[in-house]
Structure prediction request, 395 residues.
Amino acid sequence: MSADTAGAWNIADLRELARRRLPRGLFEFMDRGCEDEVSLRNNRAVFDRIKLKPRVLNDVSDRSQSISLFGQRQEMPVAIAPTGTPGIMWYEGELALARAAKKAGIPFTLATTTLTAMERIVDEVGGRLWFQLYMYADRALSRWIAERAKTAGYEALIITVDSATFSNREYNLRNGFTIPITYSPKNIVDVLRHPRWMTGVWLRYMLEGGLPLFENYPPAVKARVKAAPMGRAMKLNDALNWDDVREMRKLWPRTLMIKGVLSPHDAAMAADCGVDGVVVSNHGGRIIDGALAPVEALPAILDAVGNRMTVIVDSGFRRGSDVVKAMALGAHAVLVGRATLYGVAAAGEPGGTRALNILREEIDRVLALCGCRSIEELHRGFLMLPEHIRAAAPK
Ligand SMILES: Cc1cc2nc3c(=O)[nH]c(=O)nc-3n(C[C@H](O)[C@H](O)[C@H](O)COP(=O)(O)O)c2cc1C
Prediction:
């Protein structure tokens, strides 16, 4: 395996390396969607239906994919999405992913349900750091976590609002894969079949005192967390409403984003509440099955709020051409979830870096082949859109 390539030529290769390295229960937790996985498949299929319309003979010898996001210049139009458990895919995986993001000059989002304390990411890595917050049934808990992120110095807070209740991921129940890990005969066999993960991650944590547990919860809550199927550690808040967002707006003085918006009406409500940005997202097809792809929702949302707030999109991005298509539609940036998580699961920090390098090279190549020197030059004229997206796109 070459150090430069990490043995991968594209994101699909990194996914395959991750699949071989991780216990099946863990890989499926990362890779799969929910219920019949219609959203998961559609998130990818929609990119196949959006065609590029390249221009030629435009001297693209001097080109750049940098963008300005929340007033700061960054080298790629991409940031790292919050994902719950890089630290269980790889030993101290959150630090590895944050380092890869810093090296690439892009923001890294730390999720609430991670295994590394938010202060360690600030102290040991730094760079542009965003924090993602779930709103729990115990509102005081969410406020406590947000205050802690503020004190730690996080530049932005992303509140994920698409999870009024737990999603239906039958494979997690079938696999019996829980956090904290429970030891069933099936899990033990699964882990024994993956010795690189067992020794490189699980055993390493065990030698240092055990698997770390949701280090960003208050200690008392952390101690109460019982083994639950992956992603179900704490009760979420099904009474969440726009007043909670207004409350958070008062508490959080820096950049505030809402993640998990698919309707122009909700995006407009977020703007009215003083939110700085929305992440148009169906959570990578992991929450509600059958929901439209964020890229399908994007034109109408941009039409509703694109000049009032920052509009970021995620779900299903695996190729540089996907990113170029979203930017040509008018997105201000793209979040990547699994693409970099596969990289970290396959090879730690170098794997995360490899995922970002692959995306950077692909974006650069597609820009050049489309006759574009910069992201700013992209517009919808570079796309042939399927009828249902064209109908939703403003003229
Ligand atoms: C394993 C995994 C864990 C995730 N955990 C969170 C989370 O804790 N909070 C959150 O807002 N989104 C979470 N997400 C969703 C991502 O932030 C993002 O919306 C999604 O991964 C985008 O789709 P993609 O994976 O196809 O890029 C998670 C996604 C994955 C794959």
About this structure: Residues 132 and 338 are 16 Å apart (CA to CA). The radius of gyration is 20 Å. The mean pLDDT is 94.
